[in-house]
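Email to the structure team, subject: Beta-1,4 N-acetylgalactosaminyltransferase model.

Hi all, the expression group asked for a predicted structure before they design truncation constructs. Nothing fancy, just the tokens so they can compare against earlier work. One-line instruction: predict Beta-1,4 N-acetylgalactosaminyltransferase, return tokens.
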Amino acid sequence: MHSLLKTVLLALVASVVLLMAVLHSWPTRAYSTVDVRQRPGSGAERLLEDRLPDLDPSAGSIPYHVKENVAGLLARNGCVCEGERDGVNLPFAKLLFPRVSAHPLHTAFQPSQLDEMKRRRAKEYQGFQMRSQTPADLLIVAEANSPLQYPTQGVEVRPLKTILIPGLALRDLPRDVYTLNFSASLGTFNVAAEVEGVKVRGDGEMHMTLSSFLLPNLNRQLQFITYTNTLFHPSTADTVQLETEGHQALFTIKIRHGVTPKLYNTGSGDKEYNISALVTIATKTFLRYNKLQDLIDSIRLYYPTVTIVIADDSENPRVVSGPYIEHYIMPFGKGWFAGRNLAVSQVTTKYVLWVDDDFIFTANTKLEKLVDILEKTTLDLVGGAVREATGYTSTYRQTISIEAGEEDGDCLHMRRGFHHIIQGFPNCVVTDGVINFFLARTDKVRQVGFDPRLARVAHLEFFIDGLGSLHVGSCDDVIVNHATKIKLPWGQSESDKAYAKFRYPPASSDATRTKNGLLYFKNRFQCMTHN
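Reply from the structure team: attached below.
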């Protein structure tokens, strides 16, 4: 009994000591509750709306003349997809004179589903806007003749850290006492040093006031104003309000973590590129093992040690092996974009070269040229050209633009062409979409990703998803050959027939409806036009 009591007392003492140690090591900073469902600092919107300068009432009576050629360039309150009428029906007219066609995307759904689909899409879009927008996106208009000097951009703080606010000053005004008020919603103000003759009230709070009889002393104090972020968010912005008698100013402080670099040690020298250390070739195959082997053989003629990653969703997969070959088996018919995701996920080099499994490398397939332009520019992805057996060569350059719409969604417009030629690379241009033969920064491709719901018909959807984050180029002097697809019916193998059945579904198929449905719901487009 005595032994049991002693054991209990020892356990009790140990528990008390452990509890005291935990309490001693517990962080002393008070944690506040933040509603991450909304954008922090959203009250700044109302503040900015109240402060936007009103139009001079007398301006309404001043006549003006609209310049249609300029005004027509401005965004409208809605958008419409309009196609071009068919012209004269001549042989090869569509190839020689391509016309713009328009397609509504809501037809991917049954009429009975459409209202519910619109409601769900609107709800998802509202959530997307809340996650993607910050007060740094709001319009701030600097009012005229303000004596306040303040930073208009470039102020940034890491979450829960402190910075000095640069560029603050008050210009001379005829007054007895100079007063300056600071307000914020996601952080507090303080002074890193105290200047004689300046009174500070509210230091360490979201609202702070400085006052002084001496303007030089006040301006000296403004050099030591600090801002500390107190409400954690990994990427947002705080709107700071600066006010003196009769004058106000607003500026934003970005709150975000620094971008963590992902660097690749290629081990290559400065004189020439080590393609094997820089590039991995990725492809997706389905049934066509003879063409895949032709691709591998052609690659090895020019790049014997470059790693080739193969994603394979054939029903009865065959072994594909050899030096520097990685073959990954997927569930049968898993799909085109799912295979791209799998292949790219296994790449460990700085760049990934995407090729179709029926391409053939030649002496014109100079990967060094594609590497060179990515190394020397800000491009994220650069496409080459594909030469058909007929001799026709295509880059499939596409410009992609989005016209803002209203509740029905935006309008997607795709056109053949490019934006401008790249200086120093006369065969290369900047565009938005390219052919299925491109070299890209591996991290950027993973960032955009390939929607695995696009199983059989997809390509430009990747570039649509990447619009705004992918900087795309195209060079027509790096060429890969395309194995011929022109075969008479009696010359087709069983694998050719099976492949064609999966690869080229009719326009009314589930694959096409899935593609249009994703454009409608996921990307919030109401329609698209293309030529």
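The longest helix spans residues 2-25. The mean pLDDT is 83. Ping us if the truncation boundaries need rechecking.
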